[in-house]
């Protein structure tokens, strides 16, 4: 984890090109947004269609800002690195706002609050203490990995490029537990109809959109658009559609 964070920070510092400022984005009329597209119900690429709470929310923010959107999808682990290379203007892919990541990028105000939860088969480990001696699957580059590593006594942490692959490892019985987002976990429990159960939260996190470090004009506009969406009912409507509840940070 340390190594990855240093690499991100180093890349950001080494890049001489400037990220597009708000004035430049506005003038071009189009904002370039990156996500993963493999993290339902937040961002999911189905055939050629991008869907999910974060996709709908970012589209609403762009509309509010008077911009067209050009979407880019990237493996999760590459997303913040691409910001440093000016490949897109911002990233919305459920990144928890952590001190490590803040060394490499800047975050907007949180667009939702959530936590990392343990999911297992009935009879399996349901909390941090029960993970002792167990094998756990997580998506690589995530706060799940960082936090499972802090749990004392875990036997093995298996990392997967995609969160859905980590879930599949649990379903196939190749690991004792999967640690992932609590809302994603609820969907998995529902879809698997009792074949898996959700245990405790290992940690809570605030999720934000990331821009290239120093791009304060863009952060300001995104924060203003988010605040507007949160006050005019746009946010509540989208949150209700995907979660049946309001997921904003309280
Ligand atoms: N919230 C977790 C983190 O901050 C997981 C994010 C995973 N996002 C994704 N698009 N796969 O690391």
UniProtKB/TrEMBL annotation:
Cellular component, GO, one term: cell envelope
Domain of life of the source: Bacteria
Entry's localization field: Cell envelope
CDD domains linked: PBP2_peptides_like
This protein's UniProt keywords: Signal
Annotated Solute-binding protein family 3/N-terminal domain residues: 30-246
Signal peptide: 1-19
Membership in a protein family: Belongs to the bacterial solute-binding protein 3 family.
Protein name from the UniProt record: ABC transporter substrate-binding protein
Species assigned in the record: Deinococcus soli
Lineage: Bacteria, Thermotogati, Deinococcota, Deinococci, Deinococcales
């Amino acid at each position: 984890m340390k190594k990855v964070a240093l690499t991100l920070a180093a890349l950001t510092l080494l890049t001489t090109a400037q990220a597009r400022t708000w004035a430049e984005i506005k003038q071009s009329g189009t904002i370039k947004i990156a996500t993963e597209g493999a993290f339902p119900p937040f961002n999911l690429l189905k055939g050629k269609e991008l869907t999910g709470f974060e996709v709908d929310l970012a589209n609403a923010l762009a509309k509010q800002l008077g911009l067209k959107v050009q979407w880019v999808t990237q493996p999760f682990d590459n997303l913040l690195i691409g910001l440093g290379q000016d490949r897109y203007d911002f990233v919305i892919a459920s990144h928890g706002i952590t001190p490590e990541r803040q060394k490499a990028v800047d975050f907007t105000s949180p667009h939702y609050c959530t936590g990392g939860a343990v999911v297992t088969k009935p009879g399996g480990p349901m909390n941090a203490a029960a993970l002792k001696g167990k094998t756990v699957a997580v998506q690589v580059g995530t706060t799940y990995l960082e936090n499972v590593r802090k749990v004392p006594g875990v036997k093995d942490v298996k990392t997967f490029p995609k969160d859905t692959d980590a879930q599949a490892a649990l379903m196939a019985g190749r690991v004792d537990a999967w640690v992932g987002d609590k809302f994603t976990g609820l969907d998995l429990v529902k879809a698997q109809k009792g074949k898996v159960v959700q245990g405790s939260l290992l940690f809570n996190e605030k999720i934000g959109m990331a821009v290239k470090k120093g791009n304060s004009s863009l952060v300001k506009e995104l924060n203003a658009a988010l605040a507007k969406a949160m006050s005019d009912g746009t946010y509540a409507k989208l949150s209700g559609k995907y979660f049946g509840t309001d997921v904003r940070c309280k």
